[in-house]
């Protein structure tokens, strides 16, 4: 259960629990996460699910990428 990512959890919490995901998420299209101020402001209130719409990246691509990197994904329409 420790490698579980909830798409409804704020991005900042996901990164806090899984700091190794930061570069992966930035590469996926979440470029603002490279800025610590953005991670600590917008990241605290924006989930991966909502962020996918803002970053124009499909939720399916996020789920597939996370699963391919060994994570179980829950939340959103994916359940």
From TrEMBL:
Residues 5-63 form the DUF1858 domain. It comes from the Bacteria. InterPro entries: DUF1858, ScdA-like_N_sf. SUPFAM superfamilies: SP0561-like. This is DUF1858 domain-containing protein. It comes from Streptococcus moroccensis.
